[in-house]
Amino acid sequence: MRHIAINLIILVLFLNSSCSDQKTVRLTPAITPELLENQIWNYSSDELSGWFFYKGYSFILFKKGEIKRLNLDRNIIDGVFAFKSEIASCLKQHNQLLIITKEKESLLFNLDTFNIQKTFLLPFDKESIIGFNERYVIRGKRDVLLLFDNNLNSLERLEVPQARFYQAFFKNDTCWILSSAGIIRFQKKFFLNKFKSDLQPFALYQYPLIYFANSRNELICYNLIKNRQNWKIKLDNQLAGNPLFSQGSIFVLTTSNNLFQLNGRGTLIEFYQLKSYPGGEFFLVKNFWGVPLITGGVFFKEQQKDNSFTIFKNRKIFYAYFWRDKLYFVETKSDKRVNLIALERKFDFELNFARNTIYLPGRSISFGLRSINLLKPYYQIKVFNSENKVIKEITLFDYDKKELSLILDRPGRYLIKADAFCSSGKRIAREFSFTVLSPFILYDFAKIFFWGLF
User: Fold this and answer.
1) Helix (H, G, I), strand (E, B) or coil at 334
2) 152 shares a domain with 66
């Protein structure tokens, strides 16, 4: 019987060693994050008049007098609208397009209804239009600002010597114009609020606040209702584009390739320096920000973390749009082709566990989760006992790497199930089973061992 006892001793030693800390291994093979690129549309730049995005749709405007609506969820053209004449120019503001035909007719096109909302004739040419809504169209050439009211069919004129007019912002029947001379408000008549130094052409409008910079490179937060400055902060250089707002933060990119992330009080949260000059509009994707580079490619940086990467190197990207866990890029080619590219990452995650599957009660059971996705999922973790009842449930949000541990006192067979979800509803499941032994098994081993010896 001694050989039985020796085998049992070896088994006990194995059980004891299996409960010690072990190097974690992946239950799934190593997965390299891979970009899934799908070119979903292609046109010649000679036939296009504009390319716009709004609420999950891409609106493609053709010079011949036609607009197509591309459904990004279904990847099909689900709407076509033909105009009576060719298109000379087009502007977008929120859910509206201002289309000016070669017959000099002005059309207000509503993207929600996909139809013409209003038709009128402008008393001035299409050049230098800086803003519009359903009532007003504003043109700003040097020294002269013109405002056309298509409800009253009236024209208002303001002369500001040596002024340049940049952008117009609207709230009901009131509008504000950003100019080099200051902020101009129109409410039945013009009011000019001058500043000590000239203003730059870029701004962020978050009613009732507007964020802009002056020639001293000071970013100013200004209240349009109270007509006063809330705060200002010194920047290193001029603005490279319109600031952006996301989740309570203001993102500002300067011509020194520096990005500033500020909170609502103007306090600096993060500073980052780009290695290349921006070549397109700065954009935000959840907890990442990105910008096309003039040298080619699109640079991504995770907010307040050291995680950054570049995609589409040596390719000219000038616009990006985010919709349902996919990024859409508009790319210009050397052969005058314009491509619409859909980009997504393989959505997956790893469940890491210790090598052993046998534990003693009261010992820590460690495991880890790691998402493999640009846009991080949330996890639902459930622990089942041998009766298939849930004894513990955990929900985690926005974790890239997370180490967790369990302490189970009752012996039995257990199963851990981890489900990962992304915002589009995709779900991936991983599971791992293990056994917690009874402490009395060691007592039984000891009895057999001593019985075998004597």
Assistant:
1) coil
2) yes
Domain match, 154 and 284 both: yes
Of 287, 314, 345, the residue at which a domain comes to its end is 345
Residue 393 structure tokens: 């449930």
Hey, how many other C-beta atoms are within 10 angstroms of the C-beta on 209? 16
**The two three-digit tokens of residue 268, written as one number:** 């600096």
Dihedral sign from CA coordinates of 351, 354, 357, 362: negative
DSSP type of residue 355: S
Closest CA to 90 of 134, 132, 54, 56: 132
DSSP state for residue 51 in the 8-state scheme: E
Residue 135 within any structural domain of the chain? yes
Would 451 be classed as within a structural domain? no
Q: Domain check: are 245 and 324 in the same one? A: yes
- pLDDT at residue 176 tops 90: yes
Segment 345-372, tens digit of pLDDT: 555 566 666 655 677 777 777 777 766 5
pTM of the model as a whole: 0.70
**What is the C-alpha separation between 215 and 179, in angstroms, rounded?**
12
The CATH number that applies at residue 428 is: 2.60.40.2550
Cis check: omega of the bond before 161, within 30 degrees of 0: no
Residue 119 lies inside a defined structural domain of this protein: yes
Contacts of 71 (CB under 8 A, 6+ apart): 56, 57, 77, 78
% of residues, the chain, pLDDT over 70: 81
One domain, residues 23 and 91: no
Integer distance in angstroms from the first to the last C-alpha of the chain?
10
How many helices (H) and strands (E) the chain has is answered by 2, 41
- CA distances to 109, 138, 164 from 100, rounded to whole Å, are 11, 14, 23
DSSP string of 200-234, one letter each residue: EEEEEEETTEEEEEETT-EEEEEETTTTEEEEEEE
Alpha-carbon distance 412 to 421, whole Å? 30
Question: Which residues face 310 on adjacent strands?
Answer: 299
Q: What is the DSSP string of 143-206?
A: TEEEEEETTTTEEEEEE-TT--EEEEEEETTEEEEEETTEEEEESSSEEEEE-SSPEEEEEEEE
| Same domain membership, residue 374 and residue 334 | no
**Side chain identity, residue 254:** T
